[in-house]
Amino acid sequence: MQRAKREVAADPDAALIFAEQALINAADAVLARDGYSANSHFVRFGYPQLPSVYSKEGQLIDRIRSARNTAQYDAGGSVAPQLAADAIRVAEQALAEVRRLLP
Protein backbone atom coordinates (compact mmCIF):
# COMPACT_ATOMS: atom_id res chain seq x y z
CA MET A 1 0.00 0.00 0.00
CA GLN A 2 2.89 2.34 0.65
CA ARG A 3 4.03 1.92 -2.95
CA ALA A 4 0.50 2.53 -4.24
CA LYS A 5 0.18 5.72 -2.21
CA ARG A 6 3.60 6.91 -3.31
CA GLU A 7 2.79 6.38 -7.00
CA VAL A 8 -0.80 7.63 -7.20
CA ALA A 9 0.05 11.16 -8.34
CA ALA A 10 3.00 10.34 -10.60
CA ASP A 11 1.91 6.98 -12.05
CA PRO A 12 -1.75 6.02 -11.49
CA ASP A 13 -1.20 2.79 -13.47
CA ALA A 14 1.41 1.60 -10.98
CA ALA A 15 -0.68 2.74 -8.02
CA LEU A 16 -3.66 0.74 -9.25
CA ILE A 17 -1.51 -2.34 -9.91
CA PHE A 18 -0.09 -2.20 -6.38
CA ALA A 19 -3.53 -1.64 -4.81
CA GLU A 20 -5.03 -4.53 -6.76
CA GLN A 21 -2.22 -6.78 -5.57
CA ALA A 22 -3.02 -5.79 -1.99
CA LEU A 23 -6.66 -6.81 -2.56
CA ILE A 24 -5.46 -10.17 -3.85
CA ASN A 25 -3.04 -10.70 -0.96
CA ALA A 26 -5.68 -9.84 1.64
CA ALA A 27 -8.20 -12.22 0.07
CA ASP A 28 -5.56 -14.94 -0.17
CA ALA A 29 -4.77 -14.55 3.52
CA VAL A 30 -8.40 -15.31 4.40
CA LEU A 31 -8.47 -18.26 2.01
CA ALA A 32 -5.23 -19.63 3.50
CA ARG A 33 -6.61 -19.24 7.02
CA ASP A 34 -9.49 -21.47 5.97
CA GLY A 35 -7.26 -24.00 4.20
CA TYR A 36 -7.92 -22.91 0.62
CA SER A 37 -6.07 -21.31 -2.25
CA ALA A 38 -7.32 -19.90 -5.55
CA ASN A 39 -5.78 -19.26 -8.92
CA SER A 40 -8.85 -17.46 -10.26
CA HIS A 41 -9.93 -13.94 -9.39
CA PHE A 42 -13.55 -15.04 -9.81
CA VAL A 43 -13.10 -17.77 -7.22
CA ARG A 44 -10.88 -15.70 -4.95
CA PHE A 45 -13.11 -12.63 -4.77
CA GLY A 46 -16.26 -14.73 -4.59
CA TYR A 47 -15.21 -16.56 -1.43
CA PRO A 48 -18.10 -16.03 1.00
CA GLN A 49 -15.91 -15.64 4.10
CA LEU A 50 -14.14 -12.52 2.78
CA PRO A 51 -14.82 -9.24 4.57
CA SER A 52 -17.90 -7.40 3.37
CA VAL A 53 -15.89 -4.80 1.43
CA TYR A 54 -15.31 -7.39 -1.29
CA SER A 55 -19.03 -7.79 -1.95
CA LYS A 56 -20.01 -4.18 -1.30
CA GLU A 57 -17.33 -2.90 -3.68
CA GLY A 58 -17.58 -5.79 -6.15
CA GLN A 59 -18.32 -3.60 -9.18
CA LEU A 60 -15.40 -1.31 -8.38
CA ILE A 61 -13.11 -4.29 -7.82
CA ASP A 62 -14.12 -5.60 -11.25
CA ARG A 63 -13.21 -2.20 -12.77
CA ILE A 64 -9.90 -2.23 -10.91
CA ARG A 65 -9.09 -5.73 -12.19
CA SER A 66 -9.96 -4.80 -15.76
CA ALA A 67 -7.96 -1.57 -15.62
CA ARG A 68 -5.02 -3.43 -14.10
CA ASN A 69 -4.96 -5.83 -17.03
CA THR A 70 -4.90 -2.94 -19.49
CA ALA A 71 -2.27 -1.01 -17.54
CA GLN A 72 -0.03 -4.01 -17.04
CA TYR A 73 -0.35 -5.78 -20.38
CA ASP A 74 -1.63 -3.32 -22.99
CA ALA A 75 -1.45 0.45 -22.85
CA GLY A 76 0.37 2.36 -20.16
CA GLY A 77 -1.11 5.65 -19.04
CA SER A 78 -4.65 4.30 -19.16
CA VAL A 79 -5.66 4.55 -15.48
CA ALA A 80 -7.47 7.67 -14.35
CA PRO A 81 -6.05 9.13 -11.12
CA GLN A 82 -9.47 8.90 -9.45
CA LEU A 83 -9.73 5.16 -10.20
CA ALA A 84 -6.27 4.65 -8.70
CA ALA A 85 -7.32 6.61 -5.61
CA ASP A 86 -10.51 4.53 -5.34
CA ALA A 87 -8.44 1.33 -5.64
CA ILE A 88 -6.21 2.48 -2.79
CA ARG A 89 -9.23 3.33 -0.63
CA VAL A 90 -10.85 -0.08 -1.18
CA ALA A 91 -7.58 -1.96 -0.68
CA GLU A 92 -6.92 -0.13 2.59
CA GLN A 93 -10.41 -0.99 3.79
CA ALA A 94 -9.95 -4.64 2.79
CA LEU A 95 -6.60 -4.84 4.58
CA ALA A 96 -8.05 -3.32 7.75
CA GLU A 97 -10.98 -5.75 7.72
CA VAL A 98 -8.73 -8.75 7.06
CA ARG A 99 -6.39 -7.74 9.90
CA ARG A 100 -9.38 -7.83 12.26
CA LEU A 101 -10.24 -11.37 11.07
CA LEU A 102 -6.79 -12.88 11.36
CA PRO A 103 -5.15 -13.73 14.69
Describe the structure.
With 103 residues, the chain is mostly helical. The chain has one domain: Four Helix Bundle (Hemerythrin (Met), subunit A), CATH 1.20.120. The protein has six helices and no strands. It is globular. The mean pLDDT is 94.
Share of helix, binned = over 70%
Report how far apart the termini are: 21 Å
Kindly report the CATH topology: Four Helix Bundle (Hemerythrin (Met), subunit A)
Radius of gyration, rounded? 13 Å
CATH architecture label: Up-down Bundle
Strand content: under 5%
Number of strands: 0
Helical stretch tally: 6
Biggest sheet: strands, sense, closure? none
Low-pLDDT runs: none
User: Average pLDDT value?
Assistant: 94
Helix-strand pattern: HHHHHH
Which CATH top level class fits?
A: Mainly Alpha
Q: What is the count of distinct domains?
A: 1
Structural class: mainly alpha
Net shape: globular
How are the SSEs placed, and which strands pair?
Blueprint: H1 2-7, H2 12-33, H3 41-45, H4 53-56, H5 58-73, H6 81-101
Helix pairs in contact: 2-5, 2-6
Main attributes?
mainly alpha, Four Helix Bundle (Hemerythrin (Met), subunit A), globular, 6 helices, 103 residues
Quickly describe the structure.
The chain is mainly alpha-helical and 103 residues long. The chain has a single domain (2-101), classed as Four Helix Bundle (Hemerythrin (Met), subunit A) (Up-down Bundle), CATH 1.20.120. Helix content is 72%, strand content 0%.
